[in-house]
Design a protein that fits this description.
There is one protein chain. By secondary structure, the protein is an alpha/beta fold. The protein has one domain (4-48, 66-205): 3-Layer(aba) Sandwich (Rossmann fold), CATH 3.40.50. 32% of the residues lie in helices and 29% in strands. Helix 3 links the parallel strand 4 (71-77) and strand 5. Helix 1 packs antiparallel against helix 2 (26-44) and helix 2 packs across helix 3.
Length: 208
């Protein structure tokens, strides 16, 4: 079974509390999403492989390291877009590939409407980005797309997860580790995370 990592970092907790506040306006909301994503990126990439690299400091020759694996960031449109910059600040060379999914309001199932992945994988590690792991439908569907694409190593990074979504993701993809800022209590009848923060897409883009 995959491992679920819920951050215990005080900076993450502080920023997440500000993010949850209904009074937080879209501009500040976007800034907080980016900042929390950057902190989670640090935690989610701790096991990336490196390779030796010879270099010279101003004083001596040494053997340092550089990342061995090529990273792909997969933001689930549209809410996942806000997390990309936080990761790019740490990994400016990462590729970004978009997968568009929306949740059918009647079935609550994901519907894919956009996918421009090339024929063959161009990265060895994919990190799925989506602020909310609610029902898990979008995350599991995206992971399935990436596996069909041929990527072997996949991680999921989100801000808040519900037990229902975590269970769905672990059941469908027990090989994918999950990184979250927090795990909340439950989903309501509309499949929103409670206490959550509302609709992450609407709050980022001012469309709520």
């Amino acid at each position: 079974m995959s491992t679920v990592h819920a951050s215990t970092h005080p900076l993450v907790a502080h920023k997440l509390s500000r993010l949850r506040d209904r009074k937080t306006e879209p501009k500040k909301f976007r800034e907080l999403v980016r900042e929390i994503a950057s902190l989670l990126a640090y935690e989610a990439t701790a096991d990336l492989a490196t390779t030796p690299r010879e270099l010279e400091t101003p004083l001596a020759k040494i053997v340092g390291v550089e990342l061995k694996e090529k990273i792909g960031l997969i933001p689930i449109l549209r809410a996942g877009l806000g997390m990309v910059e936080g990761f790019w600040e740490l990994m400016p060379g990462a590729e970004v590939w978009h997968i568009g999914l929306y949740r059918d309001e009647h079935t609550l199932r994901p519907v894919e409407y956009y996918n421009k992945l090339p024929l063959d994988p161009t990265v060895s590690v994919c990190i799925i980005l989506d602020p909310m792991l609610a029902t898990g439908g979008s995350a599991t569907a995206t992971a399935e797309v990436l596996k069909r694409w041929g990527v072997k190593k996949i991680k999921f990074v989100g801000l808040i997860g519900a037990p229902e979504g975590i269970k769905a993701m672990q059941t469908a993809h027990p090989d994918i580790d999950i990184y979250l800022a927090a795990i909340d209590d439950h989903l309501n009848e509309r499949a929103y995370i409670v206490p959550g923060l509302g609709d992450a897409g609407d709050r980022q883009f001012g469309t709520g």
